[in-house]
Structure formats: C-alpha cells, structure tokens
Amino acid sequence: MAGEDPFRSLNRYPPPGVDARAPNIARVYDAFLGGKDNFAADRQVVDSVLQVTPDAPAIARANRDFLRRAVRYLVGEAKLTQLLDIGSGLPTAGNVHEIAHELNPSVHTVYVDNDPVVHVHGQALLADAVTTEVVTADLRRPMEIVDHPEVRKFLDFSQPVGLLLTAVMHHVDDKDDPDAIMARLRDVLPRGSYLVISSFARPGPEYPAEEELVEEIERIMHDQLGSGHWREADAVRSWFGDWTLVEPGLAPLALWRPDETDGPPLITHGMIGGVARKD
Predict the structure, then answer these.
(1) Which residues constitute the domain of residue 159?
(2) What pTM did the predictor assign?
(3) What's the mean per-residue pLDDT of the chain?
(4) Residue 65 and residue 83: Cα distance in Å, rounded?
C-alpha cells in the first residue's frame, strides 16, 4: 500500500469526514513510525509520550517487525492463503499483502479499520488490486466485519484464515468487552486458522519504575487520545482462548522469532505478542 499520497493528488486534505483537530489512533501510530499522514493533534500525542519515554518509536517499529515475521510465518510455514487484518492502520512500507505476496502472490488480504482516512488510502492505492481489499468497520462490532459483503467476497470462511490484531486490542475499552469480541472472532474461524495478537502489557510488580512509567503514559493516552490500556500478560493470553500458541508462545515482540533482518533488538518491553492455531 505504498505509493504517492492519494489525499494530496486528489486535492482533498484532509478528506471529507475527517476531523484534523482531534487525534486519531491510526494517525498517531503513523506519527510514531515517522509517517507523513498525520496532523498536529496527532503529533501532540506523540510529543507528550516522548517527553515521558523516548522508547515509544522503537516500540512501534518492533510491532511492525513482529507483524512482518508473523505474516511470513502464516504464509510461508502455515501455508495460509487468506488474511484478515483488523485495525490495520494507515499504509506504510511493508504492508501485510506486500509481505504475503513475496511468498505467495495469490494470497487474499482484507484490511479493516474504523478510520475513514485508512479507507481513502486503501481505495486509492489498491484500485487495481484483485487480491486485496480495504473495508471500513469497527472491531467493537465483530460480526459486522465477518458478515461484511466485501469481506465475504474476498475471504472464504470455510477455509483457514489468518486473523491479525496487531496493536489494536489495547484500544478496546473494558466496557466494550474485549473478551467477548475475541470469543466471537475465534468461534467464526474454522479449524486450521491462525490468530496473531500484539498488545501493550504491564511490566509487572517486579519492575516498579516501569509500572510508574506505564501509568503516566496510560494517563496521557487516555487524556489526549481517549484510549490505550496496558493489561496483564494473562489478559492478553486469554484472547487466544484454547488455541495452541506457536513457539515461543506469548513473548516480548522483539523476542518472537527474531530473524537476521531485525538486527539487535532496540527494546524488549512495552508490548507482547504471539501467534496461535485453532486445532
């Protein structure tokens, strides 16, 4: 999904329906990654977090590296040909379908995000794609995603699907019942499917200084962005249900199957992730 900026080529920036005055999850993440599709309100959130911890961009990059390795596992080792990326965020180099197509050009990928900015990018940059689609829908209403006609057009739910939820579940509030959301998504997928999750995780009482840091960052995220939850590792583990975790299990992102392209890990705390199979 890399290429020229479709907003500016259409002379509509921001695009209709987008409030540039309020920070947005996808655009804040884009700003952490050094992207260009974000506004002053998004960069203010980043600046506030960076004043507390300069490690934040490294954590965002670690998540992108984890996503790359997970997709390569799904397509290369697990031989999946269908991927559903919920909470996909804004396009950046090395998107899911690009990584997948390096190994198998026939893989079908559907991106889902609730941000209209993501949809505008996707429609412009995937105009000629026959195996990739972008859909606007909300993770908090999972069955609307599963039953979406474009999702059903591109994915066959009678065959294994790779479901990716990277850096998105920590933006789901407890009142929206993340456990129920995950249960519904797991139930609809057939045997042989895989689930990829990465999420903010609390460092634990053995790291009191980091616990204080997390609380401050969490406060900033809630005050300025309205979301962002650091949960216990057991809570993240529960979202995989009874699916079988692929080795090395749930781990700090930089330690999940690192490869030679990663170099030494820049950071090993802040987020955890894993991949699991439905047997």
Answers:
(1) 6-277
(2) 0.89
(3) 88
(4) 17
